[in-house]
Amino acid sequence: MLFIWLMLAGFIFLLSPRKITNKFQFVFARIFSRPMSIGRSISFSVRARQLPIDVVSRWEYDKLQNHLSNVLKQREEIRRKIEKLSGVRERGSLGREDCGCGCNHVDAKRGS
User: Cα(79)–Cα(10) distance, rounded to whole angstroms?
Assistant: First the structure.
């Protein structure tokens, strides 16, 4: 029965004007300010206790950042080489008999 009364009260607040609901909101905040502040301080203290375990020094961070930069540069160079080689492969597969490597490829369509 209490649940039904609370649902009815919530529905009335939902349909009531904003001025009235703002007043109830401020009254609620004033009444329950002490318990809410206690809960807030507890949550802040819990957050403060969790220290990050994986902390590195600035020197080590700079060293890792430099290593990352080198690896990314190497990856970019390898990607460029792959693009260059794939371009050579595409140009070489245009049906020409001589690919430029000194060998003679046989074209299956012509039968030679």
Answer: 62
Structure tokens at 26: 């401020």
What does the pLDDT look like over 21-77, one tens digit per residue? 888 888 888 888 887 777 666 666 655 555 567 778 889 999 999 999 999 999 999
Name residues whose C-beta falls within 8 Å of residue 99's C-beta, 6 or more positions apart in sequence: 92, 105
CB-count burial class (<10 Å; 0-12, 13-18, 19+) for 90: exposed
Helix axes 18-31, 33-49, angle to 10 degrees: 70
Concatenate the DSSP letters of all residues of 29-98 into one string.
HHHTHHHHHHHHHHHHHHHHH---S----HHHHHHHHHHHHHHHHHHHHHHHHHHHHHHHHHHHTSS-SB
Cβ-proximal residues to 21 (8 Å cutoff; 6+ apart), any chain: 13
